[in-house]
Design a protein that fits this description.
single chain; mainly beta; Neuraminidase; four-stranded antiparallel β-sheet; 24 strands; SMP-30
Length: 283
């Protein structure tokens, strides 16, 4: 077990998707309040950006700014306000919303969906290649498409469909963006795997919804350590700071009005491991 401290005390209903930007700020989303929040690593400045609808994730763009993943698909957040639509989700998006999303090391945007009522099989995982005019459907039949990550060499992709309780690993072709040879990295029975990140040594850090913790797994699937949080709805994590040596952890307060620890963003110092810079979308 390890200690954590509060990084940001603004209470999120459904905090998610933290990342460390090239601007020296930590960014994350509050999905159900349609906002993207940020705070400087030093903690002396903070702010937020409103979105036009529920925002499942914000992914940095290599040329600057962010892509926000909304219920109908991704949009580019325009400096000074406004949104520029990118290719949307195919088919009827009624009752669905975006969930976790990330860029891969080659600059592709990966984004998943889920149903608001969490009905089984309604979600999918998509890929948007830079310059493409349509999303590529990669996986269908998902329930809560969630955590994404890649090994430091880009040869392994990780993905979580939360109700399965698994962290899945795939061989990954960085040249084509095609995953193959699915296998289970970890099966989790205490809490539900949510968002995740990968550190510089290839360790996989998994946030546990209803589990009150973040777990680190080695690349061969061995449980390495547990970081305990003071609230159960732990949603995601990412490394931040100039040395990428601080693990930032988001949580949710939905359904927990009397929990003063719920919905805050926390920080943990692993001491012996650092993260990797956030990959950016090249579109």
């Amino acid at each position: 077990m390890s200690d954590v401290e509060v990084f940001d005390s603004r209470r999120c209903e459904l905090g998610e998707g933290p990342l460390y930007g090239r601007d020296g700020r930590v960014w994350w989303v509050d999905i159900l309040r349609s906002r993207v929040l940020w705070r400087s690593v030093e903690g002396d400045a903070s702010g937020e950006v409103s979105t036009s609808a529920h925002v499942g994730a914000a992914v940095p763009v290599c040329g600057g700014g962010f892509v926000a993943c909304l219920p109908e698909g991704p949009v580019r957040l325009v400096p000074g306000g406004g949104e520029q639509r990118l290719p949307g989700y195919p088919g009827d998006t009624g009752g669905l919303r975006s969930n976790d999303a990330k860029a891969d090391p080659a600059g592709r945007l990966w984004l998943g969906t889920m149903a608001y009522d969490e009905r089984p099989g309604a979600g999918a995982l998509y890929r948007l290649d830079p310059g493409a005019d349509a999303l590529t459907t990669v996986f269908t039949g998902l329930t809560i498409s969630n955590g994404l990550g890649w090994s430091p060499d880009g040869a392994t992709m990780y993905h979580i469909d939360t109700p399965t309780g698994r962290v899945d690993a795939y061989d990954y072709d960085l040249g084509t963006g095609e995953p193959s040879a699915r296998r289970t990295l970890a099966q989790i029975d205490e809490g539900h795997p949510d968002g995740m990140c990968v550190d510089a040594e290839g360790g996989v850090w998994v946030a546990l919804w209803a589990g009150g913790a973040v777990r680190r797994y080695t690349p061969d699937g061995r449980l390495d350590r547990i970081v305990a949080l003071p609230t159960p709805l732990v949603t995601s994590c990412a490394f931040a700071g100039p040395r990428l040596d601080t693990l930032v952890i988001t949580t949710a307060s939905v359904g927990r009005p009397d929990d003063p620890h719920a919905g805050l963003v926390y920080a943990h110092q692993p001491v012996d491991v650092v993260g990797r810079p956030a990959d950016c979308f090249g579109g």
